[in-house]
Design brief:
The complex is a heterodimer of chains A (363) and B (282). Chain A is mainly alpha-helical. Chain A has 15 helices and three strands. Chain A starts with a helix and ends with a helix. The chains are: A mainly alpha (363), B alpha/beta (282).
């Protein structure tokens, strides 16, 4: 009896995550078939890797915003850290590691580590405080990273890596290559990112986030969101678990950034600005705070939508950010309106009970 | 499932728990010395001295706004005391945080229920078990053997704790959807799950009907007897306080005005004055 109960409980807890894996795997297989049949337009094909990156960004930001309940407005900053460190590593290892997938893996790992270091630096002082300080500090962090990389010159020659903050100070040997050229960003990057790598990164992200949430640490993180004082009085170390969620989120963003950076031959730091952070936040909010599946779907649809042919021809694309802002405000208003919430709740209940009845009839 | 534990003694035995400091002979689980806190210029609690024995049930009563919950918040370090010391099992809790105090052995419930209302009943208890069934984060992410083992232990412990209040069948329910009385009981279970040596109950019977209160009284005594822990409770229901507390401490305007057994408290003129007002001089 208890064994049966436990089995049912486990299924309930894991079914959701398996559905998410299944959705991602199915989408990948379908896309691969379509690619094989050459049925996907070039513009969409070029979006496949960025879509993967944004899905990882959205799922990882959901860990901070939806599951931990802290607002972060600088998620693109971690992506930026990952992107540029990934580009540097990949260029530096060009001759050492010939196999591209292996180089990509190393670049993504380094990007993840850099994202994690950034997460610790930002999170450690801020997450000890109560209130909305994380939002303010992450907002500043994103801008700081952007501005630092804008003035950074990085090059490599036979002596190793060189760094400078002025172009004239970057003195390279004959065989040297400049990797990052200040405001021009990273240029001449070998594109080694692949859709398969993006797909694997999504699976890894889902694995990490879903297993983390469904464990002792995840329950501690959820308890902080629901009621911090009660969590503390249950002996939960607030700073530790806030930092854990935030750093895991930053690590994944760093890896996504590395993949993103290695998908283009040139990348500028201003690509990862406040707008990108907000864009990812929109994916998370529209997908539903705390809903991993929602984040995946929202990120995929909203990244691909502007690339669809009917959207490209219309002027709607120019107003994309404005539209997102309006949608974000509407979602906020709707979710804080008791009447609307009750209405939605009633609809949800009806839907659930009718589903249950169907299930009962089927049995 | 009839009561195997002794019925609460309605005629109290002489108190061994709330003892004036001079009488402290056997080591108490909790000792407060000259505890006090000021909010701005207002002294919310001052010169609070008390000691609780290791398996005592102590009551903290007083009119509204007397500072009872403030005392709980001081003991659990939600507030940092302005003055005085708190000794938990002889150790000074001065530098501890709320979480550390919990790990050192004080668990509490809240006057206004603070459950993790969106999580299941079982998860609420498992969060209480956070420091009882431990494994590292990596083990959880990569589903190492210690994850499976400790999760199983936590699951069994949670059901066992819930069975104290016959709540094991509610394990899958959302905590916020439970009726009021069940939420209060779940809070007690969650507090017990942290493995305390002192349990602080802030108005456990608030909003309960007389039969629920009677059942709660039985359960509080049962908890003390099975877990061999000290319990300190704030309560306005005098039947409960006088029925199960072995020692009572009366607080008014942040100061202790009386300490003693229920019988002594009931006869104490200062207590009567605090509750009913001064007798008019004829």
């Amino acid at each position: 009896m208890t064994a049966m109960k436990q089995a049912r409980r486990l299924r309930k807890a894991t079914v959701n995550s398996f559905i998410n894996y299944a959705i991602v795997i199915a989408a990948f297989i379908i896309l691969q078939i379509l690619l094989g049949q050459d049925m996907i337009s070039n513009s969409i094909q070029s979006m496949l890797v960025p879509v993967c990156c944004y899905i990882v960004m959205a799922v990882s930001l959901n860990l901070t915003v939806g599951i931990l309940g802290e607002l972060s407005l600088g998620h693109a900053g971690f992506m930026s850290l990952g992107a540029f460190s990934g580009i540097i590593v990949s260029t530096a290892l060009k001759d050492v590691v010939a196999a591209e997938p292996l180089r990509l893996l190393i670049a993504m790992l380094v990007g993840a580590v850099m994202g994690g270091i950034g997460g610790v630096i930002v999170g450690l002082p801020v997450l000890r405080l109560r209130g909305d300080y994380l939002a303010i500090v992450t907002l500043a962090f994103g801008e700081i990273i952007k501005n630092v990389i804008m003035v950074l010159y990085v090059g490599i020659d036979s002596d190793g890596l060189h760094m400078a903050t002025k172009e004239a100070n970057l003195v390279l040997a004959e065989d040297g290559v400049a990797i990052i050229k200040g405001p021009m960003g990273a240029v001449g990057v070998t594109k080694i990112a692949s859709f398969t790598a993006g797909f694997i990164l999504i699976l890894v992200t889902l694995f990490v986030v879903q297993n983390l949430v469904d464990s002792r640490a995840g329950r501690a993180i959820l308890s902080l969101r629901d009621n911090r004082i009660a969590a503390e009085s249950c002996g939960i170390n607030v700073t530790k678990y806030k930092l854990m969620a935030f750093v895991v989120s930053a690590v994944l963003a760093g890896a996504a950034g590395a993949l993103y950076g290695l998908n283009y031959s040139s990348t500028v730091a201003s690509k990862f600005d406040f707008n990108t952070s907000i864009l990812v936040l929109v994916y998370v909010v529209l997908g539903g705070l705390g809903s991993i599946r929602g984040s995946i779907i929202a990120a995929a649809i909203l990244t691909l939508l502007p690339e669809m042919s009917f959207m490209r021809s219309s002027s709607l694309k120019d107003y994309r950010m404005l539209l997102y802002a309006v949608i974000l405000i509407l979602v906020m208003l709707a979710s804080n309106n008791p009447t609307l919430r009750r209405a939605f709740g009633a609809v949800g209940k009806k839907f659930k009970s009718s589903k249950k009845q169907e299930g009962g009839a089927a049995q | 499932m009839s009561k195997q534990y002794p019925k609460p003694k309605l005629v109290p035995v002489p108190s061994t728990n709330i003892i004036p400091e001079r009488d402290v002979d056997k080591s108490p689980i909790l000792e407060c010395r000259h505890l006090g806190i000021d909010f701005g210029g207002l002294s919310a609690v001052s010169d609070f001295n008390m000691a609780i024995g290791r398996t005592e049930i102590a009551g903290l009563i007083g009119p509204n706004g007397a500072g009872k919950t403030t005392v709980f918040n001081l003991l659990t370090k939600v507030y940092q005391p302005t003055r005085g010391t708190i000794l938990l099992d002889g150790k000074d809790t001065h530098s501890m945080t709320t979480a550390q105090v919990n790990r050192a052995g004080i668990a509490r419930t809240f006057q206004n229920i603070r459950l993790f209302s969106k999580l299941s009943v079982e998860d609420n208890v498992k969060i209480g078990l956070h420091n009882q069934a431990t494994y590292p984060m990596w083990s959880g992410i990569f589903r190492l053997p210690s994850y499976w083992h400790k999760e199983k232990v936590a699951h069994e412990m949670a059901l066992e704790l819930l069975s104290i209040f016959d709540m094991q069948d509610l394990a899958d329910h959302q905590a916020g959807s439970l009726p009021y009385g069940a939420q209060r009981r779940l809070e007690i279970v969650r507090a017990l799950a942290t493995g305390p040596s002192l349990l602080l109950l802030d108005e456990p019977a608030a909003g309960m009907n007389p039969s629920e209160t009677a059942e709660l009284m039985d359960n509080i005594v049962k908890i003390r007897d099975t877990f061999q822990i000290a319990i300190m409770l704030i309560e306005h229901d005098m039947n409960l306080v006088m029925g199960i507390c072995e020692g009572i401490c009366v607080l008014n305007f942040g100061k202790i005005i009386a300490k003693g057994t229920p019988a002594e408290i009931q006869a104490n003129p200062a207590v009567i004055e605090a509750y009913l007002g001064k007798k008019k001089e004829a």
